[in-house]
Amino acid sequence: MTAAVRLLIAQINPIVGHLDYNTQCILEIIQAHSATHDIILFPELALTGYPPEDLLFQPDFFEKMSVCLSCIQQATANCHVILGHPQRVSHQCFNTASIFYKKKQLAHYHKQALPNDSVFDERRYFVPGAPCACILTVNTLRLGVCICEDIWTPAPMQQLFRANVAGVLCLNASPFDRQKYQKRLETLQPLAQKGVFIAYANLVGGQDELLFDGGSLVLDASGT
Fold this sequence. Notes:
The chain is an alpha/beta fold. The chain has helices spanning 19-33, 59-74, 154-162, 180-192; strands spanning 7-9, 39-41, 80-89, 92-101, 104-110, 134-138, 141-147, 167-172, 197-202, 204-207, 210-213, 217-219. Strands 1-2-3-4-5 form a five-stranded mixed beta sheet, with helices on one face. A hairpin with a 2-residue loop joins strand 4 and strand 5 (104-110).
C-alpha cells in the first residue's frame, strides 16, 4: 500500500510587519487543524508578510520575531508545520522555511534562488542559501522543501530529485499577473511528471502595488 499524507495548505493573507496579527492567524490554523493533518504548509515569509523590506534592517524586529517563532514552535504537536520567515545568522539574513514538530524545530531551509528583477529586490535583504536539499520524512514518504523561485530554477530542483523525494513542498509569495497561473502550470507540470507530487502554497491579498492571487494547488505525479 502506498503511503499517504494529509496536507493542509494554509493560504493566508498576512499583514506586512504585523507580527502579532500574523502569529495569531498562524496559531489559530495550527490549533484548528493539526489534529487532523500530518503537515500544515504555510506560504513564503508568512510570519512577516511579503515583502518586509527595510524592517529587516531593524534588530528589534528580529527580537520580536524570535518570540513569535517560539510561540508557534510550542504550539506544534503531532503535525509537521512548515513556516516561512526571515532568519538572521550572524550578520547574514536568509529567506527561510522552518519545520516544526512536537514542539521542536526539526530543520530549516534557506532559499537558494533570490529574484532581483521586476517587483523583486531580494538580494538587497537576503543571502542565498547553501546548495543542499532539505528533506523530511512523513509517514515513510521522503519530501523535499523549497521556496518560490527555487522551483523555477534548475539547481534546487535537481538536488531534490537526486534525493529521491516522493513530493515537493513549495512555499511561495508569487504576485499576480494575467499570465501567471498558466506560467505556473507550464513550470510545475513537467516537474511533477518526473514522478513527484508538488504542493504549492501561495500568499493571497495585497501589499502596496503587489497583488497575491493565491492559486495554491497540488499536482500529482501525472501533472494533474
